[in-house]
């Protein structure tokens, strides 16, 4: 069930509370799961209440959840006062200050150094006379009821400052999980993507599901004409586009996840779990050709349809799919100028920036004139699952499409065939392009293969340019250096696309102003030999296929 009512925004009050009754140990375990899922580096949780009420039991359960190990040895810190754990996701500090003489002894424990950036769980925090408290914290008070079952506990959770909003979200997540029938499920963290979204697998007795936690994206600072980047680039601000696109794709026979339930206002969804198996295999991971081939068949089948620009979220609520317009495409390529160039030591004059926009405006015009399709926008290996138990195109599971736009068909084909996170052999890339073109031409003999080839080169260069900026930004702004390892691959894709004859002007601009990842900037006036000057006789990325009765050969050419 989708709850489309306005459930209210995250409270701005400095304090929020939630009273919970725990009838048994199973309920205590669920509370520990919920707390563990909430906690982030730097968070402080104090545990207080009656002697023997179970403060250490709850802390131990939270630590085991954070470790993903129900058998982890978690000794009580009664005598050591402080115990630290270096876990895969977080560093955790568990303290019991009952034996603390006074707050001055915290320095002897190295309190500040030990807890800096850690998830900190503190029993008997009152013994430190406020010295360990922070404005942003969660307090957990456990009491023994005067009457009732022996194992029953009453818990009051108090969120202060930033943790007030976190507590509100924790309560909303538990309510949704219970509502859709996954109350007893085990919650297991799933590695997320480069966005602010997070995911958990809900492991149930009969089936699993995935919890998508996608709080509303706040607007950033204005960057052009008073609008933030997210508005210009048409990035989804909430989960409504995901729900609408999932339902629209499923209605056409494609394997997007079913929506089991959600709170649209809170940005929470429980969706179908499409499993563990992707379209890569081996060590290091490499594309499985037959899976990539079916993935490009999905695109060809989708693009052959008449696709509306408005789709339903739920009864009485529609989503208008934005147009992948010139402003969006230009603001994306300018990420190269704003992030990658400074990262590589480059500087740009106003005239050079103006020339960059003019060259891209001209290059993008033919693609923007094509009949638009649904561009899912992140159609690559991390977001494609393999479902061997299904038949035909339904064997390809689709995960990420909330930023879908109406735009050039070549964009998603580029996303797949020039995968940003894994090497796609050039022979496989060419085979995929020929396979796509043949399928489109079979469905529509008027399909413009040459126009598609030109658009593929342009959209490939656009996407590679954007990703160089995005991955650099993830490193510098978001402290995610792991993405830098992909820059050489993206650079290689960019070189290949800019060798297309019609992109000679852009190729020259890049040659004059952009250096390869890891290369040093040359002195002013010295041009790095980066991109080959496109020759008139250069081959297009794909060849015009022969009639449908003649299959392309292994090189991807008919």
From TrEMBL:
It comes from the Bacteria. The keyword Nucleotide-binding applies. Its main location: cytoplasm. Transmembrane segments: none annotated. Residues 188-441 form the Aminoglycoside phosphotransferase domain. This is tRNA threonylcarbamoyladenosine biosynthesis protein TsaE. Residues 539-558 are annotated as: Disordered. One of its GO terms (molecular function) is transferase activity. Pfam families: APH, TsaE. InterPro entries: Aminoglycoside_PTrfase, Bifunc_ATPase/PTrfase, Kinase-like_dom_sf, P-loop_NTPase, T6A_TsaE. It comes from Ancylobacter polymorphus. Belongs to the TsaE family. Keywords: ATP-binding, Cytoplasm, Magnesium, Metal-binding, Nucleotide-binding, Transferase, tRNA processing. It is found in: Cytoplasm.
